[in-house]
Amino acid sequence: MKYFLAFAAILAMLCAAAAPGDEPSLFAEGIVSTADDESGFALTSDGKTAFFGKVSPTTAGDPMRVICVTRRDETGRWTTPEIAPFSGRYHDMGPALTPDGARLYFISDRPNGDPQKHDLNIWYVDRIASGWSEPAALGAPVNSPAREYGVSVAANGTLYFASNRAGGKGSFDIYRCKLENGEYKTVENLGETVNTKGAELHPAISPDESILVFTALGRDDEIVGVHKAYARGDLYVSFRKSGSWTTARNCGAPINSGGGESWPAFSADGTGLFFTSDRGFATYRLPHRMTWPQLERGLTSTLNGMGNIYQVNAAILRGLDR
């Protein structure tokens, strides 16, 4: 009986972790979401392996960005993260798994044919018997001489990505490219219902290709905290109907906050939404004078204003389809 109860407890833990609620919650606080700066997330379909980004602190230049991996052990707990075997030398970010888990895409500035050039491109690794293959870059027309910044893939293989290539609506636009006979051939701009003169980044497509969530910077309806010194970003959603995309709208609270939200991602079955947020103890104006102990606790806590990974039930998006 005691072994049955122990198994039931572990099963309950796994099920609870796999079912995000209607309010955003920190993912694996203390392991994945910490006082460090985390951004970008991908979870395997069995819920046992998670990939996420870590960003180094910096006051000048580009921070170091690496992709990390953690695994759930037999007790249901997440293990101490490691740097993913394909990351750790270049700026790598935005892990995105295919729904079947066979391939992992990511953004990297590693050289792509020109050792002197380090622009951002879409790279991938394939799952092999020994782990992951060597990274390879997608070719044209997906990658371009410009920068690609964010990638997601539907169950049918269609890629959604952001790029600041020539001919777009604004600084960065979101594009899609269908998989045709095993190749990516034609890139399509998603048009003015999604893209604006501003920046649209980090697309996340649901597995069935019916819902698109992405980051937009500086729109008039962006939710802000104490002040709006610069565009921090909110998540927006658009729905695909009869082959067209509805006018994107702000996801609103509780997904967005006065902090910055970015890097959305769907679970493999489309029921969960993961995203990055830097909401913290000082996002909004405080109701009272802060004491030194309170400040120290806030600065060293998970909610110190650095990025964390949140999860929420993706069904909450359906309420925005109107």
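Above is the first protein from milestone M3; the second protein from the same milestone is given next.
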Amino acid sequence: MKLFKEVFIANIKELLRDKSGMFWLVAFPVIFVFIFGLIFTGNTGQQSYTIGLVLEGSSVINNNIEKALLKNPSFNIRKGSQEEEVNALQEGKRELVIIIPEIGFDLNSQYDIQILYNRDLNGTANIIISSLKEIFYSIERRLTEQTELFNIRPEAIQAKTLSDFDYILPGILAMAILQLGLFGSFQFLNLREKGIIRGLGVTPLSRSVILSSEILMRLIIALIQTILIVFLGKWLFDVQITGNLLQVFGIVIIGALSFISLGYMLITFADSMESGRGIVQVVQFPMLFLSGIFFPVEFFPSYIKPIIKALPLTYLGNALREVMVGIPAQTTMQRNIIILLLWTLVTLVLTIKFWKWE
């Protein structure tokens, strides 16, 4: 036990001296939290739409319509001729253009209000048109002196809503654990390449002590990463953590063991640091982009989904989202944990079978 303690402390000191290693394990995930947090939580203002307005007359009713449109805080009204506003619409400078004819006081007549919009913005246009209809119906009721049948009394209540960053924060933690497991194995690969592991074979120090102390150090780093990421997400970007830290730590340890085991399995097939980096990157990049840790897997085409279901990072991301922010996944928590444990078992067996001390 004394030897294990000494080797463990030596590993920590070596890691602290490795500035690039500390950056990738600690600073890199923190930078990701800041970048995504500022992107997805920085824009909290009301959505504004630029609307072109063409008035083909200057009657009292036309002027009242213009005033009603200008009062809407969501509308950025740009008034001009039909040719000017249609050209602006075609250039993408307007969401839509409203063309209003000369409207007189003949209440028996019907006036056509023309609305032009880009078909590529069909969803946005529907939202704006719905607001416009309400404005015109309100003006129509005042002109015809109709009594409103219903008295709508809106009352705002505070509800918990999930932002895009609530989805991404657990993904950043999953990415950090992936990096920790895959790139953390490079330290042992470096010792093996330099012949240090072979030299220790003639000393009383067991090789398994070196390996187990490294694994323990990686698990502790994973917990430190978790505390940092959860703290930054909660206190800087107001992410509501629904689960307690013990639950989060449990998922993190299971995920870290899975990727630490995967990392050591990969370096068994590497003869040098260069080949080790190549092997790890071939595994790392598909998992980062296909596991759904940064955007829902529903966005992917159906022929990619079998690959997504085979990746361990998919299930770590699912488990962390559910336990951290309460986002239910397509897979149950039990299945997430079982698949992560299966990945740990399979990679551990392969590591033992092909392991090379020198």
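Note on the second protein: Residues 148-159 have pLDDT under 50 and may be disordered.
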